[in-house]
Design goal:
This protein is mostly beta strands. The chain contains five helices and 59 strands.
């Protein structure tokens, strides 16, 4: 009885202190509220400290008292997430701004098992910048859990988490649970890092469980424990863009069957560019089915480029050094991993195929699974005499594989469903990689910057640091690092193939393209000599996925180049009319 009485007094004291906290400032951009201590932090959302206001931290905040707050007879629930309760204006979305001024919030404890949207901020539509978290714990049995935001529809920049422990059900991430851009064209995560543990069921990632927007410059050192599907070192389910991401640590299954697991993304229909993963994907026992696994993505239906994987991959079926399944594009990427598996395993891709659209009870092919200018140099160990193994590609259909190679000596794989097998010595010769010395950017000054770097006779090809720096600096594939100059390969203008596919159907060229914002679109068809044989002004199109048909009845059979011009930026796809 005495214990219960003491706890009630404690709760009353906490509520009174939070309500009576005073902060300097008036919450405007020019004069933000100043958070000096933990009591000020708890006051956000109370009285005139609205979720629409602006805040800055003036000092490091020790939030360790949260471990002893909001307790019942059995446990303490800790800090009440900003937005879990309504503010004085009746809002739950935090639309204001918090600038941490590079200070640290340490010891924050949040444990509301039956509540979703658990994080420092439940629903963030404003911004959190220049803030660090240390020793933060968020535990729930529900979804949308992260350290900084349960759901992000705004901006998080220059935010870093150390010694994190995040647990939830679906949509769980080290920084945010779900990252959407439904209401905001400015949604972005940039210059973020997470170090710690993450545990979840579906859509679980070291940075975000689900992402529809841009994650740029992300670093992760994480131990992820997963229960079901779409588990990734940075994002579990990627529908946006991940640019310049690095991961290390491990992903370990907790249940008997876990699918779509990747060092960068578990499942990706978006873009993965300039990423590196050394994360280990390893199962705990022989009774676990660990499937659709890749050093970069478990399944890639979008685009992977300028990326590589070096971790250990141990599973059962559909495993690849870059992607377990690829129905999109993989180019200028490589895997130097150790692979152990049973069935449908490839040094780069386990299973590769085209994408199809079901329309009027028929299948329409909308894109090819494609691998180009990439390689695999892996050790590969086959269990139980498993089927469908390949040095580069395990199983392939409706796909292309251009100028790509694998080390047949290291992998002990003599065959593949695509690519060319080379000895280890040949893999360390520039001359073995046909056309690779012509791939890169030509700057306005005329300097050619190659994608690849060769250390003749000493090592496998690696990425040219100067080229990668240009890519990172650009922070977007829609903006060329050379200030708008198009790429040059083999002395011919070549454009970005992201989200652009073509096929011939009933005498028409069907074009599939996806654009991130409203744009004016034009299509041109060029013959192999670069002469324009057909043009069509498609016109202004809204953001999203589009299908257009171009008449091809009077064109000679053969190979052409399709050029899609989107607001002045060009994208190319080879088309075979037959």
């Amino acid at each position: 009885m005495k214990f219960a009485f003491i706890m009630v007094l404690g709760l009353l004291a906490v509520q009174t202190n939070a309500a009576n906290a005073t902060m300097k400032g008036d919450g405007t951009v020019q004069n933000p509220f100043q958070i000096d201590d933990y009591e000020d932090l708890k006051a956000i959302g109370k009285e005139n400290y609205l979720y629409s206001s602006n805040y800055i931290l003036t000092a490091d905040i020790d939030a360790s008292l949260s471990q002893q707050e909001n307790c019942d007879h059995y446990s303490c629930f800790g800090f009440v997430p900003i937005g879990l309760d309504r503010d004085a204006a009746g809002n739950t979305d935090f639309t204001g701004n918090i600038d941490g001024k590079n200070h640290i919030i340490s010891g924050l404890y949040i444990r509301y098992l039956s509540d979703s949207h658990l994080a420092f901020i439940a629903r963030l539509k404003g911004s959190v910048v220049n803030l660090n978290f240390d020793n933060i714990e968020v535990v729930s049995d529900s979804g949308n859990c992260g350290s900084v935001a349960g759901v992000l529809n705004g901006q998080i920049q220059n935010v870093h988490v150390t010694k994190g422990n995040i647990q939830g059900a679906d949509r769980v991430g080290g920084i945010v649970g779900a990252f959407t851009k439904a209401d905001s064209v400015d949604a972005i995560m940039k210059n973020v890092s997470y170090q710690g543990n993450v545990e979840g069921t579906n859509d679980v990632g070291g940075i975000a469980g689900v992402s529809e927007a841009d994650i740029i410059n992300a670093s992760v050192e994480v131990n992820i424990q997963a229960r079901q599907k779409r588990i990734g070192g940075i994002v579990g389910n990627n529908k946006g863009r991940i640019i310049n991401g690095q991961t290390k640590g491990s992903i370990v299954p907790l249940t008997s069957e876990v699918e779509y697991v990747g060092g960068i993304a578990g499942y990706s229909m978006g873009l993965i560019s300039v990423c590196a993963s050394s994360i280990d994907l390893k199962k705990k026992s022989s009774y676990i089915l660990y499937m659709e696994m890749g050093g970069i993505a478990g399944e890639n239906g979008g685009r992977i480029e300028y990326s590589y994987a070096t971790g250990n991959i141990e599973g059962e079926r559909v495993i690849g050094g870059i992607a377990g399944v690829n129905t999109g594009l993989i180019e200028n990427s490589y895997a130097q991993t150790d692979i152990i598996g049973e069935k449908t395993v490839g040094g780069l891709v386990g299973y590769i195929a085209g994408q199809y659209l079901i329309e009027e009870d028929s299948l329409i092919k909308i894109s090819e699974g494609n691998v180009s200018t990439s390689y695999a140099a892996n050790t590969m160990l086959r269990r139980y005499n498993g089927e469908y193994w390949g040095g580069l590609i395990g199983v392939g259909s409706d796909c292309t594989c251009d100028n790509s190679y694998w080390d047949s000596e290291l992998s002990k794989m003599k065959t593949s469903n695509g690519g060319v097998g080379l000895t280890t010595a040949e893999m360390m010769k520039k001359s073995s990689f046909v056309g690779w010395d012509t791939i890169g950017y030509k700057s306005g000054s005329g300097k050619f910057v190659n994608v690849w770097k060769f250390d003749e006779g000493k090592s496998y090809p690696t990425f040219n640091d100067e080229f990668i720096a240009l890519k990172i600096q650009s922070s977007s594939l829609d903006d060329d690092p050379n200030g708008g100059k198009v790429a040059v390969a083999q002395n011919r203008t070549v454009a970005d193939k992201r989200s652009f596919g073509t096929m011939l159907k009933n005498g028409k060229i069907e074009i599939r393209f996806e654009i991130p914002s409203t744009a004016v679109v034009k299509f041109s068809l060029l013959d192999m000599q670069g002469r324009v044989v057909k043009t069509q002004n498609i016109g202004r199109r809204a953001a999203g996925l589009h299908y257009e048909n171009i008449d091809a009845e009077n064109l000679a059979r053969g190979r052409y180049f399709g050029i899609l011009n989107v607001n002045g930026k060009v994208y190319e796809k080879t088309i075979l009319l037959k």
